[in-house]
Amino acid sequence: MDAPVTASPPSFIDVAGNRIALRHRAGTGPGVVWLGGFKSDMIGTKAGTLDAWAERSGRMFTRHDYSGHGESGGSFADGTISAWLAESLAVFRRFTEGRQILVGSSMGGWIALRMVQELVKAGESERVGALLLIAPAPDFTSELIEPQLEASHRQALAEKGFFERPSDYAGEPYIYTRALIEDGRENRVLEGIIDTHCPIHILQGMHDPDVPYQHALKLVDHLPADDVTLSLIRDGDHRLSRPQDIDMMIRTLEGLVERVG
Known about the structure:
Layout: E1 11-15, E2 18-25, E3 28-35, H1 45-57, E4 59-64, H2 81-95, E5 100-105, H3 107-121, E6 128-134, H4 140-145, H5 151-159, E7 162-165, E8 174-177, H6 178-186, E9 200-205, H7 213-221, E10 228-233, H8 243-260
Helix pairs in contact: 2-3
């Protein structure tokens, strides 16, 4: 396994008034684009390892932080799927060229699927060569959060516009806003056929406490037109950041790079 390299200083672009931090490594194509998860950043274990792999292989690699995340500006509480999607598309269009492999982790899997839909609408479907989705959480606000809301959460949403939940991954609680939940309904992808026009490989832990593996099975049902591989990791958790998980991610990505050519 490659050790993550020391992160270089980020570049910044303005998207809808937010200063979005990104790192772009020039190299050969197909390039790789990292899309992180909810409340994560671009210098975590998986993204850092991918950057080290890209450096070693001479591969183009692009990653960024959504507004309210990591080194980007803006408030996390102001974020929505639509806003983070727009930022991802802006980085993708400005800093990448040719075919790209989108690697989406957790919420980043949702962003990746929405990016494909928007690129198809814009006549740019050829820009995405493949998808690698790691514990993907499409529609997590409506599929995984809303069904579990307690009366106190609904009251907080109605009265304050947000509620908080303890996080297993950070020292401070996650904030879920009414805007995030309402906007999530407008960005649902698990309502019909998702046609990405490219191969997809999903890595999913079966001991994932946040995104049950049944959610990945449901996603596969919505991808009947694509070449989809689902790898279930029996003892894997949500992060999939153990050495064996990282090795599997790299091997899977290398297989997709070979396919895309």
